[in-house]
Amino acid sequence: MKARWDIFCSVVDNYGDIGVTWRLARQLVAEQGCAVRLWVDDLRAFERMCPEVDVQAAQQWQEGVDVRLWPAHWPTTPAADVVIAAFACQLPPDYMEAMAARERTPLWMNLDYLSAEEWVVGCHGLPSVKFKGVQKYFFFPGFRPGTGGLLREAGLIEQRQAFQRDSQAQQQFLQDLGVVPMAGARLISLFAYENAGLASWLEVLAADGQPTHLLVPEGRILGDVQRWLGVEALGAGQVHLRGALTVQVLPFVRQEQYDRLLWCCDFNAVRGEDSFVRAQWAGRPLLWHIYRQDEDIHLDKLDAFLERYTEGLSPAAKGALIALWQAWNTDADMGANWKMLLEHWPEVTAHAEKWCLEQALQADLATALVHFYENWI
């Protein structure tokens, strides 16, 4: 019999949590043959990336996944063989009792946040707390051998490379979104949290000798873009031109379309976790807006990734990339740092593809989870 999996997702950061768990649930079904229930406490956030979702339904099937609304009053339901608490969310007490009541206790894992910090390797797979004999384990995605790897569907890199070689397919995809860049324009995607440093970056892009077409999916950064443009309202479909910079707002798209948007662009500014990983699979230079945490501990996480990501770059290119990322994540002036990065554009572009291919040598996250379960039983 196929193993039954329950994945619990408490939506905290709008789309990152559900983005990761939705990709994982679909991959476990499609590639690993698992039976998956995905428990979500905010179906409206889910609807943005899966428009077919009925936000009123307590239970529904989407792409082979049994999607359940995580109710305030937990129903009587048997626990699965494998239980994943995504991003340290707290399981319902009644469900925990159901886990303990099973004749064979389930494998209970805390799927933690992605980090490049060295301590992750030592903690990955270790036992955590127990509940009435049910042992919980830490499971860390990561960029190093000895971690759980990254979410990556089978054949993803090959699909991306074929798409990037097909200029007609890219042009058609962009046209379907209403995007028609002028010849020779640099294409940049921008998906970020609010950022006071954005205006300085946009000023430099507008004054550049090369045209830039900036694609901004609907999200939290729109307010900053709107203020810089000096317009009263900014929404999907609008296009504004200032100097060498064209700003175009895109509607929120489903995950497969967002992947292709990243593949089309020369540079991708992304946020959180899901889009961060997908930008790496795009094989193009990127800029990560990490989720802020108290006492700026997120900057340690940022520095840990930069230390690993920039291995192999020349000192000048490494310094330029680190300076840009640090400026972006501290609301600092972006102008001089962006110009510095442009001086090393061929090198950082080649490095992005090299990094992608190196990461693809590791087992993907879904496969690593299944192997962990198989070893456990």
TrEMBL record:
Specify whether Methyltransferase is a keyword of the entry. no
Organism superkingdom: Bacteria
Q: Which GO terms describe its molecular function?
A: translation elongation factor activity
**Keyword terms:** Elongation factor, Glycosyltransferase, Protein biosynthesis, Transferase
Q: Which reaction does it catalyse?
A: dTDP-beta-L-rhamnose + L-arginyl-[protein] = N(omega)-(alpha-L-rhamnosyl)-L-arginyl-[protein] + dTDP + H(+)
Is-annotated flag, keyword tRNA-binding? no
Q: Which family does it belong to?
A: Belongs to the glycosyltransferase 104 family.
Question: Which protein, by its recorded name, is this?
Answer: Protein-arginine rhamnosyltransferase
What species is given as this protein's source? Pseudomonas shahriarae
